[in-house]
Amino acid sequence: MAAIVCAGRPDTPEAAGLEVVVTPGSPSGTVRVRVSGEIDFDDAALLREALQTALVSHRGTLLLDLSRVTFCDCAGLNVLLAASAAALSAGRRMRITRAGRAVERLLDLTATRPFLT
Questions:
Q1: CA–CA separation, 21 vs 43, rounded Å?
Q2: The dihedral of CA 46, 94, 52, 27: what is its sign?
Q3: Can you point out the beta strands (E) in 9-106?
């Protein structure tokens, strides 16, 4: 079963928004989380809720596909780091398996790649 969480921005012409899709993964014991759109201050809470729900609802390692993320600011990075810490506290892992240019650049600039991959 997949869960999809979306948030559009009606105040912008293109309504970039954020989409998070959570599905049980293969191999067994993993959960795939695909994020599309922009992760910024306005949408960070939505991502936080989706990742917390995935951690509570599934027992496997969270595998994040961020290849469709077009923008990520420090609020988004904070959510990713907090979710990773929460997973570790629960005896599990969360790691980024794929990332787009925006996320790759942010991980490099902040030297946080080792905490998320």
A1: 15
A2: positive
A3: 18-24, 30-39, 61-72, 94-99
- The structure's pTM equals 0.84
C-alpha–C-alpha distance, residues 54 and 72, integer Å: 20
Read off the DSSP letter of residue 90: T
Cross-sheet strand order for the sheet of 3-7? 3-7, 18-24, 30-39, 61-72, 94-99
pLDDT in tens, 59-114: 889 999 999 999 999 999 999 999 999 999 999 999 999 999 999 999 999 999 99
Sign of CA dihedral 38, 60, 52, 96: negative
Assess contact for 57 and 36: CB atoms under 8 A. Answer: no
Q: In this structure, are residues 66 and 50 in contact, taking their beta carbons and an 8 Å threshold?
A: no
How far from the centroid of its chain's Cα atoms is residue 105's Cα?
16
